[in-house]
Amino acid sequence: MHPAHRGYQDLDEYQENLGRHGLPYVVITAVAFAISLVGAEDPKLPLFFAGWAVGIACLGLAWLRPKFWIVAPFGALAGAILIRAGSDGLDSGIGPLLLIPVLAIAVYGSRWALTAMVLTVVVAVLCVHFATDDTAISVSSVWRQDVVMIILATVLAIAIQDLVTRMRRERNLAEERGLMIERLSDVTRRIATSVNGGDTLCQVAIEETPASGAALFSFDLNGNRGLIAARGGVTEMLDDLAQSPVLRNEGQIERRFGAGDPEMVEINAAFAEVAPDLVICRSVTSEKREVGTLLLAYSDASPDSGIPLELLAAEASIAIRHHQVTEQLEHLATTDPLTSIDNRRGWERMIQRALGQARRHGQPLCLAMLDLDHFKEFNDAYGHQAGDDFLREAASSWEEMIRIDDHIARYGGEEFVLTLPNTDLEGARKIVDRLRAALPDYDGDPDKTTCSAGIASWNGSETVRELVARADQALYLAKEGGRNKTVVSPDGT
Fold first, then answer.
1. What is this structure's pTM?
2. Nearest Cα to Cα of residue 197 among 293, 321, 289, 280
3. What's domain 344-488's architecture?
4. Catalytic residue of the set 13, 207, 393, 414
5. Which DSSP category does 137 fall into?
6. I need a surface site. Which of 114, 222, 223, 340 has the fewest CB within 10 A?
7. pLDDT digit string (tens) for 167-218?
8. What does the alpha-carbon distance between residue 207 and residue 32 come to, in Å, rounded to a whole number?
9. 197-327 adopts what CATH topology?
10. Chain segment 445-477, per-residue pLDDT in tens
11. Does 400 qualify as catalytic in the annotation?
């Protein structure tokens, strides 16, 4: 297709392009027109100047009106025929000039335009021969010259057009690949720099493909599957779906579920927001090992456009790795390296969730601060290694004894914090006393390893800091009262 048809923004851009690509043809044609008059024995000036006028008029029309660009080569053909008739007729020697508009159409026009141009040349040459040559029926050198010219023009034009079409197709393909590489580079950058790579990937899947819902699941080394992130789905149901056989690809790289498949009942519930009629379950691999599953939900859309699924799955492996590294770093940042339970930072994240849940559901929440008695003296007497071993044993024992919803963390030094959701003061006291009694003995002497505790119950409005302060005050009273006891905050209810 000619550059004029490529959707230019304005006339100036079109004219600049037409001048750049069409100027060589205009110059060659003008020079040939001028030379045709040199040495002409009996020039017919009206025809000669009419040829110039037709050529210039058609060129001007193409210059001013982009949709009429094809008028220019046809005008050049008409001008060449008139100038040929206005110089020395069939013997002017400028018959090959008719090749120029044919080649121009071959480079920039369609196959239909090229066919029309060749037929026009044939008809024009025949008409001129019969109109100007009394011996046109006989085979003359001029006839042979024009026939050879037409055949040569047709063969060259077809070859040139095929070559140009192939080059244009390859260039477009290269441009598409370049754009795809840019898009993938942008996706990789977004995933690598985002806080949640999985969430970013799901967002990209919706932006760069026709999918209306997306979910990313990861596998650990034991084969357990967990939801990393989702868009357009119900998180709780996708969590349940993570354990479903639906996501087991059983050696297949990709599986598709349509409206009639029984698996769609469970999937539709998870993607109730988008009501998909097609779901693609794509395996995500890294180093020849399956590391996850990418789920894409489509609603009245074809999955065959946008970023190819295999490339999106490759980006998903990066997101999963990013998620795993983030989890490892998060675990290191929130875990006490000595006791392997949460540290103060991990507890601070947990207590905010626990307090929010207690506020939403109107449930009680108790907080206990536990401190090992005379631990400095213990370290001085038995060594810091023994002290570390005792802290590990105490933390491990307490973690096994508390309920699933309870949470214990090392607050600092020999002090621990116990969070008891949906538990009143009486229940909290029983749990704390049971933990205090379960401290491991040292050298068979339970008096060497005792613990004091303070408990506070959330009053429904105070902040975490205020709740901790009351529990800490209760702990202080327990120590002041002789240690090895549990004290409830006097402000508790």
1. 0.53
2. 321
3. 2-Layer Sandwich (3.30)
4. 414
5. T
6. 222
7. 888 888 888 778 777 877 887 787 777 778 888 888 888 888 889 999 998 8
8. 56
9. Beta-Lactamase (3.30.450)
10. 656 689 999 999 999 889 999 999 999 999 999
11. no
